[in-house]
Every structure is written in C-alpha cells, then in structure tokens.
Specification:
single chain, alpha+beta, Alpha-Beta Plaits, two-stranded antiparallel sheet, 6 helices, 6 strands, about 40% helix, HTH domain-containing protein
Length: about 180
C-alpha cells in the first residue's frame, strides 16, 4: 500500500480500563466499540503498514493494552449500501451480477448465514465503478493474516517457542 494514504486497522483487544480507552482515543484517535464481551478499536495508521503496525503495537503494549488480533472489516449487503450511500437494491444487483458494471463485484468471504464481504475489497471495486471520496486504505485478507502472524509469533516467542523473525518490541512477557 502506498505510504501516503492512511491505513485503517480494526483490532480485537482485551477488555480496557477507562484510562486505556482514554489513551487509545487521545494518542491514536481510535474508535472503540464493544460487541458482547469483545472490545474492538479502529485506528488509522500513516506510513508503511508494517512499520506503523509495529509502532502501534509497541505503544499499546507500553500502555498495557494487548492486541488479540487484527480483524477484517466484514460487511453485509445492507452495510455496503449504507457506507456507499446507494440503495440496497443496487448492491443486490451488483452481488447478482445483473448490472454490467458489477460483473467483477467481489465475492463474499463468508457464506454462512448472511453473506459477508471484505470492506477493503468492496471499496477497491467501488473506486473503479463509482465516485468514492474515501482515501483510506484497508488491509487485504493476506495483510490481515501477515499482521496476525506477527502477533502470534510474538506471543509464542514470549512463551519460549522458537519462532520466525519477530520485531523485538512486540515480544511480550509470558502470558
């Protein structure tokens, strides 16, 4: 991804104290949400994705905030319509391929229950077919997997496992 465009990451976190929430909001301009017992934060990173991610992880670790994982921003057809400010019917037509412009609309990444699409793939498609005023970049599924691999490697490294190269600032004390 070009380093000049901000990258939005959605993080799954351990439950936060009020002070940790304040830190995330003040230092990283994070948007925090909860779904059941899960806590999530959306942050915008500037610069090369991996370097920015390591800076974020080090900063959050210093504040006692543990990143459990980077999560894909998965959306329903209704959410696509809302975010792109189009009708749900238009999105349904794109999904079925009944509009010429939609012949290459992304396939859903989850088919169980409601179909879910990766928002980054949808935005990338929309930028070529619609007028979209969203300069934010979103990680691809592969990039999410790479970042989660770094998190898992750091956790296992802290437990004494021999792991692939890990940024030392991400290695934590054994949990």
């Amino acid at each position: 991804m070009p380093p000049t465009e901000p990258l939005e990451l959605r993080l799954s976190l351990r439950p936060l104290s009020e002070a940790q929430e304040d830190f995330l909001c003040d230092e990283w301009d994070a948007h925090i949400s909860r779904h059941g017992k899960q806590t999530f934060a959306a942050v915008l990173l500037a610069g090369p994705a991996l370097d920015s991610f390591f800076d974020l992880a080090k900063s959050l670790d210093g504040a006692g905030i543990e990143i459990l994982s980077v999560v894909q921003d998965l959306v329903t057809a209704s959410e696509i319509a809302e975010r792109l400010e189009v009708s749900r019917q238009a999105v349904n037509n794109w999904c079925r391929g009944t509009r010429k412009a939609a012949s290459d609309f992304p396939e859903p990444v989850v088919l169980a229950g409601a179909h879910l699409w990766d928002w980054g793939q949808v935005v990338q498609w929309a930028r070529t077919h619609l007028v979209v005023n969203d300069a934010v970049q979103y990680p691809s599924p592969d990039e999410v997997a790479i970042l989660n691999g770094h998190l898992a490697s750091a956790r296992q490294h802290a437990k004494g496992w021999l792991t692939a190269a890990v940024d030392p600032s991400m290695a934590r004390k054994a949990m």
